[in-house]
Design a protein that fits this description.
- With about 375 residues, this protein is α/β, with parallel strands linked by helices.
- It folds into two domains: about 170 residues, Rossmann fold; about 190 residues, 3-Layer(aba) Sandwich (Rossmann fold).
- It is built from 16 helices and twelve strands.
- The strands form two sheets. A six-stranded parallel beta sheet has the order 2-1-3-4-5-6, sandwiched between helices.
- Helix 1 crosses helix 16.
């Protein structure tokens, strides 16, 4: 191997690309290293020449994998072959477990192989807990973004480190006085299917809120891929709707709006970082809902509720809803996802200072739980470079 260590990284989505870029920048602070692998624009800015376009791996769901099976298999074979030829000191895969773990399993079979690190643990605490034991067989180290995750993997002998969540870096408390009491942020999701289901319910919710405040306005952040569909859906809304594009404008809205109505997802932590009080809603078809009910092990859908529940009780179980009948973030899922219930919860956040204060305190505590010592992920990687 070369005297200058070689690190091979693999990211398959935009979030992983940013994590990879941040990790590369941290490593370079204290080490002279070479990088190779697969990534997007952020990682390329840090010096990576991607083996092929990262977007080739950005495939969602079982149907997407089946549809692009031969292309993915070709990339998998090419990636493993390249790693064997380059002989890196460390291979780091970032999220995208469908592709990442297949690469790692093939590399693990070799007698002479690099150290294998995966960044962002699979959500075994939510569903398919058996994955923890399986990945412990072929990984050398796991980097987690949630503080309660290590215990799920360490019991199977896998070295695991909580390295903090990137959202915690945006932990800036906003002044409540600077918010517009008539501005509501609406976030119906990033997938067309989500928007199609939730938008009619959100429209009726806003109609109910308008009865209380005729001056309300809506800011609706969205993505280019669904912008046209969103615009079509808000044409007949009874209140002004500002379609918001781009991260900078999105963050501005998070700082100016008074409450948010959001589809369940990763946006919950972004809203928490901005200290924008919100409610969570989600609805899927009956079959998928039944499957989710059988498979999912957590008592809540919102990550804020999950983090605080584990922090206060030390474990997660479905029946914990009895212990916490009123979650920190109101959740309206499936049959509970009605305009009447969502409007009532939003009105409470708009006018009840005590309820609003409770949620703001929960957001502050959540961001604190996601913080970790700086550059800790890079320090873990460094221990393998020194060997």
């Amino acid at each position: 191997m070369s005297q200058v260590p070689l690190i091979f990284l693999i990211a398959g989505e935009a979030s992983g690309d940013q994590l990879g870029a941040d990790l590369m920048a941290s490593i370079k602070k204290n080490h002279t290293v070479r990088f190779a692998g697969i990534g997007g624009e952020a990682m390329e800015e840090q010096g990576l020449q991607s083996l092929f376009p990262m977007t080739d791996l950005s495939i969602i769901g079982i149907l997407g994998i089946v549809r692009h099976f031969f292309k993915l298999w070709k990339h998998l074979t090419h990636t493993v072959k390249t790693i064997r030829l380059m002989q890196p000191d460390v291979v780091i895969t970032i999220d995208s477990p469908e592709f990442s773990f297949r690469v790692m399993k093939q590399l693990h079979k070799r007698s002479q192989r690099p150290k294998l690190i995966h960044y962002v643990a699979p959500t075994v605490w939510a569903w398919r807990p058996g994955r923890a034991k399986k990945i412990a067989r072929f990984l050398d180290h796991l980097l987690c973004v949630y503080p309660f995750e290590p215990s799920y993997f360490e019991k199977y002998g896998l070295a695991t480190t909580f390295v903090g969540h990137p959202i915690a870096k945006e932990n800036v408390s906003e002044n409540e006085e600077g918010r517009d009491p008539h501005l509501i942020c609406v976030l119906p999701g990033s997938r067309r299917s989500e928007i199609e289901t939730l938008m009619p319910l959100f429209k009726k919710t806003i109609d109910l809120l308008k009865r209380n405040d005729p001056d309300i306005r809506i800011a609706l952040p969205t993505l280019p891929s669904v912008e046209a569909f969103v615009r079509q859906n808000v044409q007949d809304w009874s209140v002004p709707v500002d379609i918001v594009m781009g991260n900078a404008r999105r963050k501005t809205i998070f700082q100016k709006a008074f409450v948010a109505l959001a589809a369940s997802g990763t946006v919950a932590l972004q809203l928490s970082a901005a200290r924008l009080p919100f409610v969570v809603a989600y609805k899927i078809n009956t079959l998928n809902a039944w499957i989710a009910k059988v498979l999912i092990k957590t008592p809540w859908a919102c990550m804020v509720n999950i983090l605080l529940t584990f922090h206060k009780f030390g474990f997660l179980q479905k029946d914990m809803r009895k212990e916490i009948p009123t979650p920190w973030i109101p959740e309206f899922l499936q049959q509970e996802c009605t305009p009447e219930k969502m409007a009532a919860a939003l009105l409470t956040l708009l006018h009840d200072k005590k309820t609003r204060s409770r949620q703001l305190k929960a957001m502050e505590e959540t961001m604190g739980l996601l913080q970790s010592p700086p550059d800790i992920a890079a320090k873990v990687v460094s221990t393998f470079l020194a060997k």
